[in-house]
Amino acid sequence: MPQAETSQAEEVPDWHALETGAVLQQLSVSEDGLQQAEAERRLSEHGPNKLPEAKPRTPLIRFLAQFHNVLIYVLIVAGVVTALLQHWLDAGVIFAVVLVNAIIGFVQEGKAEDALKAIRGMLSPNARVWRDGRLLTVDATAVVPGDLVALQSGDKVPADLRLLRAKGVEIEEAALTGESVPVEKGTASLGVDTVLADRRCMAYSGTLVTHGQGTGIVVATGAGTEIGRISAMVAEVQQLTTPLLRQMAQFGRWLTLAILVLAAASFAFGYLVRDYSAAEMFLASVGLAVAAIPEGLPAIMTITLAIGVQRMAGRNAIIRRLPAVETLGTVGVICSDKTGTLTRNEMTVGTIATQARELRLTGAGYDPHGVFLAEDEPIDAQADPLLTAALRGVTLCNDASMELHEGEWRVHGGPMEGALLVAAVKAGLDTELLAKERPRTDLIPFESSHKFMATLHHNHTSESFIFVKGAPEVVLERCASERTPEGDQPLDLVAWQQRMETMAAAGQRVLAVAVKPGQPHQSDLDFKDVEQGLTLLGLFGLMDPPREEAIAAVRVCQQAGIRVKMITGDHATTAKAIASQIGLLSTETALTGRELDTMDDAELQRRVIEVDVYARVTPEHKLRLVKLLQQTGTVVAMTGDGVNDAPALKRADVGVAMGINGTEAAKEASEMVLADDNFASIANAVEEGRTVYDNLRKAILFILPTNGGEALVVLGAILFGFQHFPLTPVQILWVNMITAVTLALALAFEPPEPGMMSRPPRDSRQPVLSLTFLGRIGYVSLILMIGTFGLFLLDRWQGASIEHARTVAVNTLVMFEIFYLFNSRYMEAPVLNLRGLFGNGYVLLAVGLLLLFQLAFTYWGPLQTLFGTAALSAGHWLLIVLVASSVLFIVESEKGRVRRRRAQDATG
Ligand code: ATP
Predict the structure, then answer these.
(1) Active centre residues (catalytic)
(2) Which of 351, 562, 637, 905 could be 557's S-S partner, Cβ–Cβ 3.0 to 4.6 Å?
(3) Angle at 31 between CA 27 and CA 36, to 5 degrees
């Protein structure tokens, strides 16, 4: 197998010790990269570039793990003792239940795990490689040895690379070396003995580029990479759990313990005080234990969680860390980027200002057909030297490219740079020719921390030019002069600032472009080269309209008591204009990064609540804002895309990374990834988060009274010294199991309650079960007990056999649960309406199924023998339904009281 060959240590050359030319030669590749056909051949030879997956637990182990549970231990011991007492049938049923329980758990857990695996698969990273001389984006698994890979800050290195070019490249190699301080990289070859952590000319698979741009040649892929060899990065195994689930598991363990003590006490009481035999009392205590322990609850909660995660993925919110599902329901503030999240990120140049005049540009999208208008009159763009100079500047100082594909124009690279190219083509510039005539020798890449980009070019006479484009204030402060029809003149700063304000006030993002001659034969570009002395060529105003869905989603959030804040790198005026189009609450004031720097924490904390627009901020400001917002006691969700956003994303309660435009570094730091980069998906995820939490609570609220009712029935029978118990242990097991797989499961599919998004967010410190809910669990348990006991006694009193009376008791209990299931659909809202009774198809299906099971339980010979049941008449059923329906009305009237009290509290 080829993969095995590459992982043989002795066959791997010391790539770091070879010169770049020798590396290219050894791997038979030119500086233009591989041909696509050759790449495909190598892919079939070397196999896909992925790490061997962590071995999943074998099905057998997974199955056996189902038995590792306190309740199951209790049941097994009970089964063994029951068998020793020669109650073969009961023992058989107990073991059957244990087995069925394990099978159900096994299947459900498998489904939940598959769902999560599918969601993880949606996050597979990409790589940018040169194939056939062009830069393409491919799936990282398709990268092969010899591929030339482009790296930029935020990327995760897709394979082991020998660097051929490195411009300010810094890489964080914690995944490999454990060292979290980024290492500066270069291209010079090193001594053979250089240790891994010091190999500065190498970039290793799985590490993160935190700064700069570079190119490397792939020397090893998949299992052949360093990380593959130490196999340290076996896919993170996610625990199917959240804080609430852990809390409930803990609660479950205490409950089990308490129940065992209670069972032991009742054994002693029954044996010593009520004169039951030890064997009888043992069976009764087992009955009590199985009645009281909510065995179905953990499985139902896991399933509810998995369904929630799947629903979120269906709505473009991919959860990376499960606890976020719960946190989402408590979010009180969402801090969102502007560009691409609240706006469409489909940019078009709308205005260009030169020193002489302001021009408008027609046309939309990437179609490079449009007209330049001066005071609404079309002009010949090529006849305007100032305009052409500005357009040449933004064309050269640009990393995007355009391509006509099947009659449609496509842009590769960022939408803003694409829009600038489109404007140049509209003016009749041949962008490709220009790039050939003025080749680029070096660049300072754009970073949101310095907010500009600069490139160095030379012409055929080796004259060099530096172009700078970026945020206007950053470019303006580096300019000494401006280009005018009469040549370069000293800069009129005030006039340019006014031009910029007018463009920004219309919601346009403004960009300035400037030029400066370079030194003769200059080949490197440094920050100090662009610090001063630039000549301003013009300003570009780019339109990026808000997303319709974002406007609607912001409204939904506001109704749900969630404050939306815009935190953008863009200019304050532009940000305020867009904020008011989107409908943020406060759009009068915007705090800029500079203002944030002058405020101390106490002052900013006072303002952070009421100010909704933050402009020209850097990632460090984002981190500070998250911290201060959290200190006010709110749960904060924060979006981000760049590598520098990682600390703020990690700090936020829910870090949200962009799936399309986000870097790998941002994705790794976040809890959730948006598949469509759309703000509306965050609002949807919050809604799903609230739903999941509600459904988890509904499951608890539904299941616990069932166990409470059953336990009270058994306890009552022991206390009163009944000869025959109303429910046998196996009947109790039947009820618990059959209702868990039907009724309780249906609650996991419960859609959001009406009005859920007009409630304020839940307080994260609130306990899962409020006093109201504990009270409800208590009184519903009592109703179930009284009804079941009552009908059992009545039946006995009328002279029925014990089998008949027990069948009445079991069916009463089940019928109570059916009615109570409808109550449990809404925690406080009324259900006695069309939507409440018929709104969830799963509930109706579950009820139908359960009724079939009960008919079999009551009338089918084999089950009658197994469970000791007897056929019932229609009259009995009528009575059962009448009695059991009481719970529906009693709980509904209690809910009504809760609602009235709440309304009074709100008005009073
Ligand atoms: P948001 O944070 O909402 O996504 P943003 O995309 O405007 O907003 P940044 O990417 O930090 O934030 O950009 C800040 C500013 O830097 C922009 O307003 C623009 O003026 C300038 N800028 C952005 N991209 C480039 C680029 N490729 N070249 C030069 N300047 C740029």
Answers:
(1) 337
(2) 562
(3) 70
Identify which of 338, 347, 511, 612 to mutate to test ligand 1's pocket (most ligand atoms within 8 A of the CB): 511
What CATH number did the domain enclosing 217 receive? Answer: 2.70.150.10
Among 500, 643, 621, smallest CA distance to 572 is for 500
Nearest alpha-carbon partner for 750 in 681, 704, 701: 701
Query: 12 or 629: which carries more pLDDT confidence?
Result: 629
Per-residue pLDDT of 599-633, as tens digits, reads: 999 999 999 999 999 999 988 899 999 999 999 98
Inside any domain, residue 464: yes
Cα–Cα distance measured from residue 720 to residue 716, given in angstroms and rounded to the nearest whole number: 6
Question: Does the beta carbon of 825 sit less than 6 angstroms from any atom of ligand 1?
Answer: no
Domain's final residue, options 648, 677, 706: 677
Question: 677 with 341: CB under 8 angstroms?
Answer: yes
Q: Summarize pLDDT for 256-292 with one digit per residue, the tens.
A: 888 889 889 988 988 888 878 888 888 788 888 878 8
Mean pLDDT value of segment 301-322: 86
Tell me the two tokens of residue 547: 């997303």
113 occurs within a structural domain? no
821 and 876: one domain? yes
Amino acid at 471: A
Strand partners, 662: none
User: Whole-angstrom Cα distance, residue 537 to residue 355?
Assistant: 8
**Which 3-state string (H, E, C) describes 39-98?**
HHHHHHHHCCCCCCCCCCCCHHHHHHHCCCCHHHHHHHHHHHHHHHCCCHHHHHHHHHHH
Range of the domain at 364: 348-543
Examine residue 109 and state whether it is found in any structural domain, yes or no.
no
**Is 702 in the same domain as 777?**
yes
Q: What is the structure's pLDDT at 53?
A: 67
A 10 A CB-CB count for 631 gives 11
On the question of pLDDT at 680 being above 80, the answer is: yes
- Eight-class DSSP state of 156: B
Task: Write out the two tokens for 50.
Answer: 């992925």
Report the DSSP pairing between strands 208-220 and 479-484: unpaired
Look at the chain and report how many structural domains it folds into.
4
The answer to whether 176 and 159 are in contact (CB under 8 A) is: no
Same domain, 26 and 166: yes
- Domain with residue 858: its CATH number is 1.20.1110.10
Ligand 1 pocket mutation, candidates 153, 336, 394, 416, criterion most atoms within 8 A of CB:
416
pLDDT reported for residue 4: 41
Please report, for the domain that includes residue 594, its CATH number: 3.40.50.1000
3-state secondary structure of 637: strand
Which amino acid type is present at position 777? I
249 is a domain residue: no
Q: Is 296 in the pocket of ligand 1 (CB under 6 A)?
A: no
Q: Is the dihedral of CA 21, 26, 30, 32 positive or negative?
A: negative
Please indicate, yes or no, whether residues 618 and 744 belong to a single structural domain of this protein: no
Distance CA 345, CA 282 (A): 71
Ligand 1: centre distance to CA 450 (Å): 10
